[in-house]
Amino acid sequence: METGFKMNKRRVLVAWIGHSDLKAMAASWKNSAGAAILAELGGAQPTAREIGPIKALVDAEPFDEIRLLSDFRPAWNKANAQLSGFAARIRAVPEGASSKAIAHRVYFSRRPAARPALGRD
Asked: In the prediction, which pLDDT does 92 show?
């Protein structure tokens, strides 16, 4: 059904920073801070060619906006944002937060006027 309204299409990436993303970033530092992050995260170490899933996607596809979620340390998030090579907003999420609450905050952080209309608090 045609409404007569033209919607602007925007490509928005919303993703959770995972261990693979953070490990690739830390490995690229090649210093003691990167080594400390890798040691704390544990598990398999990334190869020199791994850049992490989010960076791989951003390098391959254009996005108008990038919003990342993370429950890692604020200093790690800041370093990831500075070294990622792309502009992104990173929202810290408390450990144990429900996925419904997270999705609500991410969606409505750009649409505050929509809250009352949808009966959300």
From this structure: 81
Find the DSSP H helices in the chain: 19-29, 32-41, 53-60, 74-83, 99-108, 114-118
d(Cα 3, Cα 92) in Å, to the nearest integer? 38
pTM, two decimals, is 0.69
Q: Which of 5-19, 91-105, 106-120 comes out lowest in average pLDDT? A: 106-120
What are the extents of the domains in the chain?
12-18+53-118
Amino acid at 64: D
Task: State both tokens at 8.
Answer: 């602007």
Q: Classify residue 17 by burial, with Cβ atoms within 10 Å: 0-12, 13-18, 19+.
A: buried
- At CA 74, angle to CA 39 and CA 49, rounded to 5? 45
Rounded Cα distance between 72 and 95, Å, is 9
Looking at residue 89, what DSSP letter applies? Answer: E
Nearest to 88 by CA among 32, 25, 40: 25
